[in-house]
Amino acid sequence: QVQLEESGGGLVQAGGSLRLSCTASGSTFSIAAMGWYRQAPGKQRELVAAISKFGQTNYGSSVTGRFTISRGNTENTVYLQMNSLRPEDTALYYCALMSDTLDDYWGQGTQVTVSS
After folding, report:
1. Which of 95, 102, 113, 114 is the most buried (most CB within 10 A)?
2. CA-CA distance, 105 to 15, in Å (whole number)?
């Protein structure tokens, strides 16, 4: 079993920035990809950004050019740098991990609220 711990969420004004962190821990496992998803009230959960073990990245269309996903200096850590935040970015942000055996793991979520 893998545990994901998220941090960095909070309240920020439009145009501001936040940096989310996610660290995976637990029993031995191999990571295929890690990423961030978000869900706002009344909306489906959507991909924000993901990065594979090979360094390939994917971004949701609404965040391209504003958000950057990166791998940490330590193993099993990813960051999401969120710039030029908009009120519509307000959501619960979840860290996700996919193992090399295609098992999925999810964090508890961290709230991001962007005020106008």
Report:
1. 95
2. 31
Average pLDDT for 88-107 = 96
Q: How far apart are the first and last CA of the chain?
A: 40
CA-based Rg of the chain, rounded to a whole angstrom?
14
Please name which of 50, 89, 92 lies closest in space to residue 71, comparing C-alpha atoms: 50
Task: Map residue 29 onto helix, strand or coil.
Answer: coil
Number of H helices, E strands in the chain: 0, 11
Q: Can you read off the two tokens belonging to residue 17?
A: 């920035």
- Rounded to whole angstroms, the Cα distance separating 21 from 36 reads 10
Pairing, β 10-13 against β 110-115: parallel
Q: 2-13, pLDDT tens digit by residue?
A: 999 999 999 999
